[in-house]
Design a protein that fits this description.
Helix content: 10-25%
Number of helices: 10
Number of strands: 15
Length: 413
């Protein structure tokens, strides 16, 4: 019988696999650690385990730790890639930044009493008599390919712009009813926050005026648009589109003339109210797929209005028989205070009305160089709000800079 430490039976002493090699196999710890199965101890077998051996880890412990570390590294790399795709530290191109509307509002102030117009033909005798009327009053030019925008995309941009102009300046639901849902639905989602702030919390800061987005009269005043949408006359144009920063840009210039009646009986007198809107639209390929647009600039001149009454929320027209309150405040170039909104006189044929209004500041009049003067709209005529009226237009806008007229009474700057 072999004793402890003896070689296995049948293995001659000194032969391969003999005593020395046997001992190295038995006591080699690396061999023990690499074993895939391990016999339970006596105490573990007494605990009632059904199996006599346990299966050990296939991989060595060091390899298992390396596999876990590699897996965690892959997860972190994947998560970082996702994060960089959403919030990367690089500055986005100018065309991808959130679009902001810039607004310029100029109230046009009459110098006398606003005259009534005939109830049966409110636009007769005025330049607006030749303007188009109704929802189909705005036309778009023929579409042509521009840059990487196909002809079909340019056509879609024109149609979306027409739809916006109609919804924001002709549709009675928005003009007199205060319903801005159709206008909102046409805007790029990136502009919705600015639009909502302009409508709910309008501020005269050049970016949050509701009347820059749409023509709207205060529903609380219950003004009546004579003839509904047919009581709006329109004339204007869309300019050829351009491309910039992978975007399509379209400029429009339209004059809208409204026949308005105050609350009361149908016998109430009617007067005209005119709004000149110069708008700039911008489209991405995605906007065109979703029938959206971005309004980036709005230059608006409207009257007859009183100077000094806020127009950032609603237009509050001076109706037939009414007169403007307040005065036209000019801009004093020597005053270091912030420049406030400027009103323009509502004149005829582009000339200032007789009797120059009083202004604030030294040596500044309503027709002085630093301030704004009124001129004719797209066609010639006389001032809106009176028979034979045409829309007044404020010249001090980005699209149409005012002519420089030397003033001998002013000191040289």
């Amino acid at each position: 019988m072999s004793g402890p430490g003896d070689p296995p039976e049948g293995v001659p002493e000194g032969a391969p696999g003999g005593d020395d090699e046997y001992r190295s196999v038995v006591f080699d710890e690396s061999f023990v650690r690499a074993a895939r199965i391990q016999e339970y101890s006596a105490s573990e077998r007494l605990d009632g385990t059904a199996r006599s051996v346990r299966v050990r880890h296939v991989l060595p412990r060091s390899l298992a730790r390396q596999a876990v570390a590699l897996l965690m590294l892959l997860v972190l790399a994947f998560g970082f890639a996702i994060y960089m795709g959403v919030r990367h530290p690089y500055k986005a191109p100018a065309g991808d930044s959130n679009p902001q509307l810039r607004v310029t509002l100029i109230p046009l102030v009459p110098t006398g009493t606003v005259a009534a117009v005939p109830v049966s033909a409110p636009f007769a005798g005025s330049a607006a008599a030749t303007y188009r009327s109704g929802p189909g009053a705005i036309n778009a030019p023929a579409a042509e390919r521009v840059g990487d925008f196909a002809e079909s995309e340019v056509y879609a941009a024109y149609q979306t712009a027409v739809e916006y102009l109609t919804a924001s300046a002709i549709d009675p639901r928005a003009v007199t009813g205060g319903d801005v849902g159709t206008v909102r639905n046409l805007l790029d989602p990136a502009q919705l926050d600015q639009f909502e702030a302009s409508v709910t919390r309008p501020t005269a800061d050049g970016s949050q005026e509701a009347t820059g987005w749409l023509v709207r009269f205060d529903p609380a005043e219950h003004l009546q648009l004579v003839g509904g949408a047919d009581g709006v006359r329109v004339k204007g144009q869309m300019f050829p589109p351009q491309t910039s920063n992978d975007m399509l840009e379209i400029s429009t210039d339209h004059t809208f003339v409204y026949a308005l009646r105050g609350p009361g009986s149908p016998d109430m007198p009617i007067s005209l109210f005119t709004v000149r809107r110069q708008l700039q639209f911008r489209f991405t390929h995605r906007d065109l797929e979703q029938d959206h647009l971005q309004v980036t600039a709005a230059e608006v001149a409207a009257g007859p209005l009183s100077c000094g009454n806020g127009v950032e929320s609603y237009f509050r027209p001076i109706l037939a028989g009414g007169q403007a309150t307040g005065r036209i405040n000019g801009v004093n170039p020597f005053d270091q205070n912030p420049v406030t909104a400027v009103c323009a006189p509502l004149g005829s044929d582009g000339a200032p009305p007789s009797g120059t209004p009083t202004t604030s500041g030294p040596a500044v009049t309503a027709t002085a160089g630093p301030t704004v003067t009124a001129s004719t709209g797209p066609t010639g005529g006389t001032a809106a709000g009176t028979p034979g009226a045409t829309p007044g237009r404020a010249q001090a806008t980005g699209l149409t800079p005012p002519p420089r007229t030397p003033q001998a009474s002013h000191p040289a700057l």
